[in-house]
Design goal:
The protein is mainly alpha-helical. Helices cover about 70% and strands about 0% of the residues. It has 17 helices and no strands. The chain has helices spanning about 15-30, 35-45, 45-60, 65-80, 85-95, 105-115, 120-130, 140-150, 155-165, 175-185, 190-205, 210-225, 225-240, 245-260, 265-275, 285-295, 300-305.
């Protein structure tokens, strides 16, 4: 698996929306004082006041939440060049929060914020170009906006940019550049970037081949709970790639991945129980793990058919 779970959704479309908006509102409210002060500033046309009032209505801070009023105040601030308001208004248009969904308007406001240096707007604009949401699909423009956001240290943008460089989407294939961006995202804690960086080291794609470094990055992702990476760490311990062979450690890592439903790990754990490698031999447990994976892993299906439980 070379590239996994490439995010083709705008940022902040989950519970993170409310968390981020509330945090910004609290910060703004601490700076601007009471709701009366905020309202007064907004009514006098102050863009920060307008934006902060929009945040209050968006998050229910000081007032009952009212998405329509939030969007209206964001619009007033955005029309005065307020980048955070433009980004928030883009989200409102894309999500249909306080207004009808209008992807073209979302793109318009993401662009306004992006051109002012708003990194989340830059990322979301790249996603719109990548998907053709509200604008004609344009891989080159998507690549360029991912690059702009990546240079500001956004981990999702770094990861997406690495994928584009590796696959040659909107740019020439550049494996060394892809690996560099995977590394930036991985160092920021991006699990999928760590996994893909491990693959690059394992295959020598854009970097000198190194099982030791591959294992290090698989371990990084595995420690963060990634089942695919846990399976690969187990495989490296089983085969002695980048580390001394350790059957018990292999079985332990296979178990972690298998319990998350990873079919390949379930098959490999079943084999451990069948052969008694790293665990006590137990054909019934072997059969149980083969059975869990049989519909998704042909080796598990075959092993289950050959297993003699008598």
């Amino acid at each position: 698996m070379l590239v996994r779970r490439l995010l083709l959704m705008p940022l902040l479309l989950t519970a993170a929306v409310a968390t981020t908006l509330r945090a910004e509102a609290e910060t703004s409210n601490q700076q601007d004082g009471t709701f009366a002060t905020i309202s007064s500033a907004a009514s006098q046309g102050d863009p920060q006041g307008e934006y902060t009032l929009g945040m209050c209505y968006d998050t229910g801070r000081y007032v009952s939440a009212d998405p329509a009023k939030a969007a209206a105040w964001y619009l007033k601030a955005a029309q005065q060049g307020h980048a955070n308001a433009a980004f928030s208004l883009g989200l409102c248009n894309q999500l249909g929060r306080g207004m009808a969904v209008d992807l073209a308007e979302a793109v318009r406001w993401y662009r306004a914020a992006a051109e002012e240096g708003h990194v989340l707007a830059q990322y979301n604009l790249a996603v719109c170009y990548a998907n053709g949401d509200g604008i004609a699909k344009d891989p080159r423009q998507a690549f360029q906006w991912y690059a702009v956001a990546a240079r500001q240290g956004d981990a999702e943008a770094e990861y997406s940019l690495a994928h584009y460089c590796k696959a040659g989407i909107g740019c020439a294939v550049d494996l060394a550049e892809a690996t560099w961006w995977y590394q930036q995202a991985a160092r920021a804690g991006h699990v999928d970037a760590a996994y893909n960086l491990a693959v690059c080291y394992a295959k020598g794609q854009g970097v000198p081949q190194s099982y030791e470094k591959a294992l290090g990055w698989y371990q990084e992702a595995a420690d963060r709970g990634d089942a695919d990476a846990q399976n690969m760490v187990g495989f490296y311990f089983e085969t002695g790639k980048g580390i001394d062979k350790d059957a018990s450690s292999a079985a332990a890592w296979y178990l972690k991945a298998a319990e998350q439903g990873n079919a390949r790990a379930q098959y490999r754990l079943g084999r451990c129980y069948e052969l008694g490698t790293g665990v006590a031999k137990d054909l019934h447990r072997a059969g149980d793990w083969y059975r869990k994976a049989a519909d998704r892993d042909p080796d598990a299906k075959s092993a289950l058919g050959k297993l003699d439980l008598n």
